[in-house]
Amino acid sequence: MDSSDAFGTLEPESRAILGALVPRTVPRDTVLFRPGDAPAGFLVVLEGSVGVHLIGRSGREMLLYEVNAGQTCIQTTLCLLGEQSYTGEAVARTPLSFVMLPKAAFARLMAESPLFRGFVFRAFGDRLKDVVTVLERVAFVRVEARLASELLRRAEGGDTVTSTHQDLATAIGSVREVVSRRLETFARDGLVRLERGRLVLADRQGMERVASGTP
Description:
about 220 residues, Jelly Rolls, Arc Repressor Mutant, subunit A, 2 domains, three-stranded antiparallel β-sheet, about 45% helix
């Protein structure tokens, strides 16, 4: 994807401004912003994925949402509109290509382009739904079900998950020690096999029952 694909539905004048932006590339694990940083501009991902995390005083992390190709970051939108600093941390989950619309150009397009405003607020709504879903799961869904759902998602139709226990804990809003204990329980129940550097789903149907909360 390039910037013209991401903004193809906008007015010609808006597309010209956005199409002139020079894409930037960064490697995996690059930190794009941290709590307390001021937004440099309006970020749109062209290729790759960004994870946006909330970090507590204890150092515990929770994945709030991901930003994938063609999407924008709700934290950036909030900070630009409210003239606030970031409260979360964004890390490239893959090699990343993105464009950054400067703050002044963002303000101009928000004021002058109805289609750009619509793009921004639709993207904001989409990301906000992701955040609400995460909060609902953390508040109301048991750890076992959240972990089972995440394992099924990461297996992507196969049987193998190579994520670390810390990565899984961050994704489901828990801590590594809790995830490790739940995985050991899954292994004793025959749902998974814990192998060096990876986890294998041994009973996908059983894992789906756990994910759904079925006894």
